[in-house]
Amino acid sequence: MSRLRKDPIVGRWIIISTDHPKKPEDYHTEEPQDDVSPADCPLCGGNESKTPPEIAAFRAEKSLPNSKDWWVRVIPSKYPVLHVEGSLEREGAGIYDWMNGVGAHEIIIETPEHAQRLEELPESQIEKVLWAYRDRMLDLERDERLRYVLVLKNQGWSAGSAVNHTHTQIIATPIIPKRVKEKLDGAKSYYDYKERCIFCDMIRQELGSGERIIEETRHFVAFTPFAARFPFETWVYPKRHSCAYTDISKEEIMDFSRMLRNMLRRLGIVLNDPPYNYILYTAPNRIARSGHWHTLNDDFHWHVEIMPRLIRVAGFEWGSGFYINPTSPEDAAKYLRDVKL
Amino acid sequence: MSRLRKDPIVGRWIIISTDHPKKPEDYHTEEPQDDVSPADCPLCGGNESKTPPEIAAFRAEKSLPNSKDWWVRVIPSKYPVLHVEGSLEREGAGIYDWMNGVGAHEIIIETPEHAQRLEELPESQIEKVLWAYRDRMLDLERDERLRYVLVLKNQGWSAGSAVNHTHTQIIATPIIPKRVKEKLDGAKSYYDYKERCIFCDMIRQELGSGERIIEETRHFVAFTPFAARFPFETWVYPKRHSCAYTDISKEEIMDFSRMLRNMLRRLGIVLNDPPYNYILYTAPNRIARSGHWHTLNDDFHWHVEIMPRLIRVAGFEWGSGFYINPTSPEDAAKYLRDVKL
User: Fold this and answer.
1) CATH topology of domain B47-78+103-337
2) How far A49 CA sits from the closest chain B CA (Å)?
3) Where is average pLDDT lowest: A19-28, A130-139, A329-338?
4) 3-class SS at A204?
5) Domain limits, chain B
6) pTM for the complete prediction?
7) Nearest beta carbon to residue A312 from set B21, B160, B201
């Protein structure tokens, strides 16, 4: 069982993962793996027996769980950082606090084919992946121990991926993560002062100036953020004010699928298929009270952050929380906007 | 001139560095450089003409600035992320804020010999480096535009270093960096509630339990933090309550030199000379008022964080601010403590 521990000074939670504790010599040997063949890849169609039993899947009518004939498949992580079993049990001693590592860690296999990148898939397949995000969020937020469902992708070795077959990670946590809390707090302060959503205001200002816009569709807009931490960092927002990804409509999913694919293709073309991470930020889990759902964060606005991993992060960034970005967001937007898709 | 920009949602400042703006193709080609020979190394003794003119140096009596015969030499960075020239000029448009990239960026050359790591140097030489840290802080905090002086080291390519000759970076910033602000705020909350320094309480609790202690000297203690973000992360604290590094005594410098060297040697032995970053956290710059110095942060306690760079940081960490550490701080402390120096 892993443990969550809290830093007493800054309040940051971390996970001490003790299922497979690492010794000093384990750190010398971490190397990117060669790509496996589809015959050996546990995420490929036909190899369902090589994974833990599936949690959910979009599959052909009448096909059995853990058989082939699926489009998208959700399995528990083989090396979960948090575990579904057990109770939270918050404890403390002196200035320190900890709790059991309760949560969920799932893998969404985005295709039965041995594709390496999401953007290689057709829009219709990406739509299914995006529905799977929604379905897993809806299911996991029913677990009252969990406060947040984080959906994220590690693309490429240096972005943290260990498996080449394209997949998404779902990590549900018993606390609201610090980075999410900072966004919620910032958005709430602005809302209290202005009585407007800060994200809606930002979208309006970006569309007004246009200098950081990469692409606009009927329902979505993609731009490089004014204060981008990383070169070619890209944000995708729904134009409609909506705090929770789970409220997305069918038409919006179709539009989002196209937008996400286009952004990843633009980054791939301009930056020669870089490693990247993307993260979907949605409101914290709704809390079941007196039999119906309350949404607590109407001042939030769901969105995706895409971060190509192009530069080394050094002591200055770790130590200060400042970032140095050697490509202006306006230049980056122009490169990405000018791509012919 | 670089610019500081503020993220409107979370309030994080970033630096858009436009002195040498990077195009997409510049990101494919970043590779570790081969070590240069001492004859070609601009940081080596005898090659003083290959660097910008020195800002300060500990050098032999009667030797001229920018000549040889020095022990420690401070030069401006050749690629500064912030510039000493100009005024701050805060500006804004709509929800966005920015200011000129005013600050300082200096390099402390830790030895005229072509050594690769600080821990290779004798204690007496490291003492000189530690005095240079203090002297640069005292000098830079007289500049009223500057709010903080960050002293940090990038050791090794993957920790952000581009030059093999051992050196320290000094970056002075016109705002208090976010990570420092979080520490100050956390310490202040605790002080308001308990009327005690949280760092002093933490040191007492660590010395009491002993399970995370690596080494204790007369004036210093080194331990792995309870909620370590990274495997083998190590913190070094002075036992005496002191908010500002600049108040360090001669005896403490001697002790600190030994302690810092020992910790870096322990990490080197256990982890096979890993890349690492260390950061010195001190109170923000004292502000000159009515002719004498005020210290504003008596609830702070200066310290050093050493972070070996052993694992890849993935989407989960970037997206959540949570960290996953696969070696418990208690195990890490035991490995480091058991080293025979």
Assistant:
1) HIT family, subunit A (3.30.428)
2) 27
3) A19-28
4) helix
5) 47-78+103-337
6) 0.94
7) B160
